[in-house]
């Protein structure tokens, strides 16, 4: 006879011991990659679960992808702190959380006085199986029709010299 799966319960919040930060559903976090030479992964917490005794804490996450992780890769207009909210969901150990971060809307990101290490922005949703973006186009800010990269101060367009 198969062993019954231990019941799990949903937690409202959980304090990640190594970083001494409390997380809850809706928070964005940095997660440790298996390959330490890669940057931390960015994820949005959907749900937190623990076993009946409150141990073995798992987080259900929705991944953000960096441009270089998407089909088509990084493009000239992608900002260095840009991420795409994907349709890729996963369950991870809460022990892999390295810290909390903030994923801003594009508009609020461009209005920040100072961008910290834990600030990112998202202007697209990304379908990980098809490589499609939603929206499938972005506003352009120049006659040459290049989208705005918030990392570049645009005084004169390098492409069209306007």
Automatic annotation (TrEMBL):
The keyword Ribonucleoprotein does not apply. SMART domains: BAH (SM00439). Signal peptide: none annotated. Gene3D superfamilies: 2.30.30.490. InterPro entries: BAH_dom, BAH_sf, Znf_FYVE_PHD. The keyword Acetylation does not apply. GO terms for molecular function: chromatin binding; histone H3K4me3 reader activity; transcription cis-regulatory region binding; zinc ion binding. Residues 21-137 form the BAH domain. Keywords: Metal-binding, Nucleus, Transcription, Transcription regulation, Zinc, Zinc-finger. GO terms for biological process: negative regulation of gene expression, epigenetic; regulation of photoperiodism, flowering; vegetative to reproductive phase transition of meristem. Pfam families: BAH. It is found in: Nucleus. One of its GO terms (cellular component) is nucleus. Belongs to the SHL1/EBS protein family. PANTHER family: OS08G0421900 PROTEIN. This is BAH domain-containing protein. The lineage of its organism: Eukaryota, Viridiplantae, Streptophyta, Embryophyta, Tracheophyta.
């Amino acid at each position: 006879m198969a062993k019954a799966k231990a019941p799990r319960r949903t937690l409202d919040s959980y304090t990640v011991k190594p970083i001494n930060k409390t997380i809850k559903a809706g928070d964005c976090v940095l997660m440790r990659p298996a390959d330490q030479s890669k940057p931390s992964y960015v994820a949005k917490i959907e749900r937190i679960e623990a076993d009946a005794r409150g141990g073995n804490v798992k987080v259900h996450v929705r991944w953000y992808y960096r441009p270089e992780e998407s089909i088509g890769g990084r493009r000239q207009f992608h900002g260095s702190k840009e991420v795409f909210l994907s349709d890729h969901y996963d369950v991870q150990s809460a022990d892999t959380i390295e810290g909390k971060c903030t994923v801003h809307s594009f508009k609020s990101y461009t209005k920040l006085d100072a961008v910290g290490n834990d600030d990112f922005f998202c202007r697209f949703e990304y379908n990980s199986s098809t490589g499609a973006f939603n929206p499938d186009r972005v506003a352009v800010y120049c006659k040459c029709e290049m989208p705005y990269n918030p990392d570049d101060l645009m005084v004169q367009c390098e492409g069209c010299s306007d």
